[in-house]
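Our example pasted here:


***
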Amino acid sequence: MRRLILILGLVDLLLAIVAFMAGGVPALVSSQVGFFSALLVVAASFGSYRRMVRQRLEAGMVAPQTRDSIDRMEDPYGLYDEESGSGEGEETSENFREIVREEKARLKKSRRSPAKVARDAVPAFSPWRLGAYALLVLGFFFLRGKGWLLLAAYLPALALPIVVTVWFLLGREGADA
């Protein structure tokens, strides 16, 4: 985490230098408002996602993973598993009908109530995320009202915290593997 903060700080310093040299004070202010508002949005989003995952882990809502996600999507019943096959490779239409009935019953049973949907939507509407987006909008209107909004500095500054954070996380995951 400290390394990510250091990288974001260095990127912001480089952004500030380039923006000031390219467009003076208005470009510097536009880039800094864009960078910090996007940084707050990223931090609030990751924080709310982290809280949601921790709450689900504490509630025991994690299913055991015996097969990887792609295998479960492509073959939910394990029809093509090498261990479970009878070797013949032939299934009767009755077996397929039974599988379809089971799947329909499972889908009907797993429908989510509006209360469950609302509970899962709470992290999307966390006060931190809403506040970060409000600051993003207010910063934009502040810059526009003062006449300091330079989109050539503002838009790249909005993207930089997201790009750097994703790049850092993907690089870290690759190092863990």
